[in-house]
Design brief:
Blueprint (H helix, E strand, L loop, with lengths): L5 H9 L4 H15 L4 E5 L2 E6 L2 E8 L4 E5 L8
């Protein structure tokens, strides 16, 4: 079962209004497609750990959001 971190809820709530639905959607997608991820905050923004390290992360900025994979080798394409 996925581990959710209440700090992610806080991060999303404090993000710019345009970014909130995007971050919520990304969060749902990550948990739906990788149910064993663990949420955490690293370097001030949400990260998702899987097995032995960071799998992906997301962030909100003043005018854009970002999402990236740290270990693309784990992706099944």
């Amino acid at each position: 079962m996925a581990s959710k971190d209440p700090r992610i809820d806080s991060y999303i709530a404090k993000s710019a209004e345009f970014a909130r639905p995007i971050l919520i959607h990304i969060r749902k997608l990550v948990h739906a497609n990788c149910p064993d991820v663990t949420e955490t905050i690293k370097w001030g923004f949400p990260h998702y750990d899987y097995k032995d390290g960071i799998f992906c992360s997301m962030a909100a900025f003043n005018a854009h959001c970002a999402f990236g994979f740290w270990r693309g080798s784990l992706l099944k394409i």
